[in-house]
Amino acid sequence: MIVCEACGTENPPDRKYCTKCARKLDPETQRAVALQRSEHTAMSINWSAIITALVVLLIVLAVLFLLVTHVL
Description:
Helix content: 55-70%
Number of strands: 2
Number of helices: 2
Mean pLDDT: 90
Largest sheet: 2 strands, antiparallel
Strand content: 5-15%
Strand order of the largest sheet: 1-2
């Protein structure tokens, strides 16, 4: 069986194209897909950390605003 690097589908060894996504199953195309996937994974954004930082920042700003408005 040949596993398609693009979608993970197992294909019979005699297939030239994936039965699910129709991507070529030749070694060159499969290497290019694997490389593209690894580059995308390495550059992915950690959204949970960004959202957490923004929530903390908003809380700090809200507390500072409340302190300033009560002091003045």
